[in-house]
Amino acid sequence: MEAAFGRPHGPLGRLGGRLMAQGNAATERHLVDAAGLTPADVVLVVGHGPGVGLEHAGARATRVIGVDPSELMRRAARRRCAGLVARGVMRVEDGTAAATGQPDASVDVVLSVNNIQLWPDLAAGLAELRRVLRPGGRLLVSVHERWQPGGADALIAAVAKAGFADARSWRWEPPGRLATTALQLRATRPA
Ligand SMILES: C[S@@+](CC[C@H](N)C(=O)[O-])C[C@H]1O[C@@H](n2cnc3c(N)ncnc32)[C@H](O)[C@@H]1O
User: Which SUPFAM superfamilies does this UniProt record tie to the protein (predicted)?
Assistant: First the structure.
């Protein structure tokens, strides 16, 4: 599971990347749409995997940064988004939720799909994402509901403890036989 989906590498990682690019595509695009991006937004996508959400964000915003600790996934995302990278709209960098490598208050929107369950320290990840968001910036998270311990209440409590405001969550049913219910959340960094 780790090699295929957790921090994809090797042959299993290539297979996992293909499965994620199909199975999670609707969720990735749905969360980008829920963010209501404008061309002025600087967007950070954390744990982008094969890059479906990155590509969708790159068609809507003029600056998009992806960070993922898997070199295999960074390569896959750069291939998928080659035109956006070549035009300077997108950068794909090594990083994690807790260490994004981005300056303070430098992004308008942070997106994370199907990876908070992999962060070794949820509080450290949320603190880092709050640091890089500008005041008023928004955080959007999607996670497989069955993998979120404590459900929506625990997630909302964690983002509130990290200093986010206006947190609200909802459930989303992705299309497809294999897809499972997503728990999604939106919150803002207070101005
Ligand atoms: C299950 S995949 C999800 C990929 C994609 N967002 C999707 O839904 O198809 C998890 C991704 O998160 C990355 N990841 C693992 N640990 C991470 C961490 N601590 N911070 C950010 N991303 C991480 C993995 O390398 C992998 O690309």
Answer: S-adenosyl-L-methionine-dependent methyltransferases (SSF53335)
